[in-house]
Amino acid sequence: MRKQRLTPAEVRRIALGAQGFSTAAPANGVERQRLRRTLARTGLLQIDSVNVVARAHLMPLYARLGPYPVELLERAQSRKPRMLFEYWAHEASLLPVETQPLMRWRMERAARGQGVYKGLVRFAREEHAFIEHVYERVADEGPIAASAFGGDRGDGGWWGWSKTKKALEWLFWCGRITTHSRRPSFERLYDLPGRVLPQSVLDTPTPREDDAQRALVEIAARALGVATEPDLRDYFRLKPADSQARVAELVEAGALLPVEITGWRNTAYLHRDAKLPRRIDRPALLAPFDPVVWERDRAERIFGFRYRIEIYTPAHKRVHGYYVLPFLMGDRIVARVDLKADRARRTLLVQAAHAEPHAPAETAEVLSCELRRFANWLELESVSIMERGDLASALIAYKKAA
Question: Which are the contacts of 338, defined by CB distance < 8 A and separation ≥ 6?
Fold first, then answer.
């Protein structure tokens, strides 16, 4: 059978539709069921501690739903009936609780010392008694923070962790403890899974490893719409051999359909339920860890958009800025803005604004409106634009006109 051929424009619309950008933002506010449906589309939210604008897991929902009450997500991840739990998926992530049984194989591998940082495995081998002591504290006193244990505090960084922090991270990797909630400072409170997860999840039988991985690849395929095998692998950070075997099985089952895409070197796969929207008409600011752009090679293939986060780049070597958000307009990424929430002055700082070569004439006008809306959601009173980047002067002009 001849492979279906997709044009670059079709690929963009399929990918964005799969991520929820083809449906209108709710006009009457966001309720729990709409949040659940959106999370079912994305499959997960990546967590990151950087809070230059807002926490990374908050912004993908804003991009898809518009201004939503952040407390709705906070309740979903910390209160009954709990909708989300934390675990290592695409890095540290929030996932629907129903996904927890699909991650148990990873927890079991971690307990065997597989798929975990070597230093942490060595620590677990050498400090078994101490780890059990920490576990008993969590069992007796949870929810409990690492800071409640006292003792050595470490000096920051992965292997500057204190002994307690290493013990907690090991137990978390192995699934013996989980995140109950987080403090406003973003510090985790740990507890036992039996006191955190819904009973229906706890009662779900543990799938075989290959069945769980196949289900995860299909979640990724639904979320991406059309993707290469490395794209699918990356979504839940599977090993190449595992991912390749599961993709082949899903092709055999008819869940994934091989397709040809102009300019793509690797075979692409279309999920059988993927839709091709007639158009995408949703302006959106995308967080650096949004699933649309988190895999930089995929973003470049689909949007012709080369994107690198420059947080760790020395200031004098940065090209676009410290914390840069791509701006989606229609089915193209047309600009990027370096943003910072100045909470003391209640101002959204636009530290630089750059247009992409194909940006349409109305980009500055649409982006200006979106920046005001974004600032309102962040509970900031104003937008301040610095004259850096080729789009800045047009933004300033539209701000004055408004």
Answer: 320, 321, 322, 323, 324, 350, 351, 352, 353, 388, 389
Please state the φ and ψ torsions of residue 346, each to the nearest 5 degrees: 55, 50
- CA–CA separation, 51 and 32 (whole Å): 25
Extract the tokens encoding 125. Answer: 């081998």
Could you give the CA distance from residue 199 to residue 373 in angstroms, rounded to a whole number?
40
Half-sphere exposure in the Cβ direction for 320 (13 Å, CA): 20
Main-chain dihedrals φ then ψ at residue 246, nearest 5 degrees: -70, -40
Q: Which amino acid is at 107?
A: M
Bond from prior residue into 240 cis (ω within 30 degrees of 0): no
Please check whether residue 299 is in contact with residue 293, taking contact to mean a CB–CB distance below 8 angstroms.
yes
Dist CA 110 CA 179 (whole Å): 17
Question: What integer best gives the mean pLDDT of the chain?
Answer: 94
Distance in angstroms (rounded) separating the CA atoms of residues 6 and 380: 42
Structure tokens at 357: 């070569």
1 pLDDT band, cuts 50/70/90, is very low
Q: Report CA Rg, the chain.
A: 22
* Residue 136: Cβ within 10 Å count: 10
Each residue's pLDDT tens digit, 154-185? 555 544 578 999 999 999 999 999 999 999 88
Q: What pairs with residue 338 in β-bridges?
A: 324, 352
Please write the tens of the pLDDT for every residue from 68-112: 999 999 999 998 899 999 999 999 999 999 999 999 999 999 999
